[in-house]
UniProtKB/TrEMBL annotation:
It comes from the Bacteria. This is TetR family transcriptional regulator. One of its GO terms (molecular function) is transcription cis-regulatory region binding. The keyword DNA-binding applies. Residues 36-55 bind DNA. SUPFAM superfamilies: Homeodomain-like (SSF46689), Tetracyclin repressor-like, C-terminal domain (SSF48498). Keywords: DNA-binding, Transcription, Transcription regulation. Residues 13-73 form the HTH tetR-type domain.
Length: 197
């Protein structure tokens, strides 16, 4: 059993979780621009040094927390059918975007990204890339099963799947009715040229 070197910081998972929760709550309450390391530390019940042992800056902390929160909610559905996979994936996307905290955080992150695109590049790339990779796996499986055409434009397909949900929930701020996912899946199957619908 390996021993922790003398003097090395031991990052306790429960402290990291308290900090993560505090970051999300501060982002929801204060927004990106007004969030401070001091406020996060106070809310988490830790000293600022606990934050700096984990991340070098506010930007790095926010990027790590938002990425972890977002990527862990990207469902890797494998129901055996494209229809089933789409349904689970789209529902997970809706659940992510309507999460009580994240639904308040995302619009602010988008606005901050427009103001300072370089600062938020890490969040945009890590969250976007990871979630798209999950979607690509789903689509490639469907191609291999013969449910989608072999020449499917993956980039366009991924945009087509996510955009209506983002537009409806974030831009229009309209609700997703109980049958919304099922209706959207049927449209998506037609748009992607699914075989046997």
């Amino acid at each position: 059993m390996a021993r922790t070197p003398t003097g090395a910081a031991v990052l306790q998972p429960e402290v990291t979780q308290a900090i993560t929760d505090a970051v999300l709550r501060e982002l929801a309450d204060q927004g990106y621009g007004r969030l401070s390391m001091e406020a996060v530390a106070k809310r988490a019940g830790v000293g600022k040094s606990a934050l700096y042992r984990r991340w070098r800056s506010k930007e790095e902390m926010i990027a790590a927390v938002v990425t972890e929160f977002s990527v862990t909610r990207a469902t890797v559905a494998d129901t055996g059918s494209l229809r089933g996979d789409l349904r689970e994936t789209m529902q997970a996307l809706i659940d992510w975007l309507t999460h009580p905290l994240f639904s308040r955080i995302l619009p602010d992150l988008v606005a901050e990204d427009a103001r300072n695109p370089e600062r938020n590049r890490t969040v945009r790339e890590q969250v976007g890339r990871s979630r798209r990779e999950v979607g690509e796996v789903m689509l490639r499986r469907a191609v291999a099963r013969g449910e989608l055409p072999g020449d499917l434009d993956l980039e366009m397909a991924l945009d087509v799947l996510a955009a209506p949900i983002y537009w409806r929930l974030i831009v229009r701020q309209a609700p997703a009715e109980p049958d919304y996912v099922d209706r959207l899946v049927e449209y998506a199957l037609r748009a992607l040229g699914a075989q046997g619908g």
